[in-house]
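Check my protein:
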Amino acid sequence: MKKKILILNGTISEIPIIRKAREMSFYVVTTGNMPELPGHGEADEYICEDYSNGPAILELVKKNGIEGIVSCANDFGVITCAYVAEKMGWKGHDSYENALLMHRKDGFRRYFTQKGFPIPASETFTDLPSAEAYCRACRYPVMIKADDLTGGKGIQKAVDPAQALAALENAFDLSRDKKVLVQEFLEGVQQSIVVFLMDRRIAVTSCSNIYCMRNPYLVQAETYPATDFSLVEGTLKGMIETMAEDLQLVDGIFSFQYIVRDGVPYVIDMMRRCFGNETLLLADMRTGFPWEEAYIRAALDMGYDSLTWKKQIYRYCGHYGVMADRNGILESWSLPEDIEGRLFKKTVNLENGSVIRNYLTEKIAHIYFHYDDWETMNREIAEYNDRIIVSVRDQ
């Protein structure tokens, strides 16, 4: 009989994990409170439940004979997995305490500050009046961030007290734990590093430039590898392996998003999970390492004896999310021939006739491209928003 495992959620970001787990001969159950998501149809079974509700998922696991759990591409999923694994006595996941530390902005801010690691200066608030008082006297510009959200939600830049007060109200309203950070605004190059830890050491590394175009707080495009990565590589890897040793972290993915200013990588976010935008696909192409299979093996504490590394497929590659410039009904979208010719994958999320309700977060499609020249790739990606034609009409 196949071992029954639970994979949280069923967006396009989880589909590669679901498919790989089934290839590995697991009986895959998915969960989440949106049955219409496409990933659920890829699983052997779907059970409707809120994956961010740890106690509810624990009961689901016990009732349905689940023998292992794998996180989705969301911080709430990592925290739920840690909670369930700790209660069930399963290996393969960090402690619940460490999961909270690493996936709550205030948690890793406090750890970084204690260690003297580079991180933007910030203050944390649990009530609106205290935050408002601070913002009336602080230095601008600042970033206002909900402590517990991802994907650009609950984040706004403020250049004066009036903007800050509006951003604070929005962040407190959206935050589940009602905790908000006011952080200094850093100008610089935004990048990411993704590694796979084995025995608290880095086994493989991938790095990228990050482009937030339509929405300044949401990743819309990435190009691999990152600009001048060798200048910050040692610092970043040192921080990761120090954290792994300090916190006795389990095997698996570890990622920083950071901004380089004056040669220093200031960490603005961190994750121990798979990612949105099918980012692991790009890591696969660049490194030849089977990230999805390794991710599942780590979560289920299986070891890596049969893991097979392949050759690098593309030296320079990336991702771009096609987005509209306003809300309305999607009439059509099209790619120029030269961009179409660079693609190795395309995933369509919204068909023509779909209603776009939030153009700042909804992605019509994801396209994955490769180039022969790194400079050309990074120059041209900045033009994609203008060159890819998206037609939207009023509702």
Q: What stands out?
A: The chain has 13 helices and 19 strands.
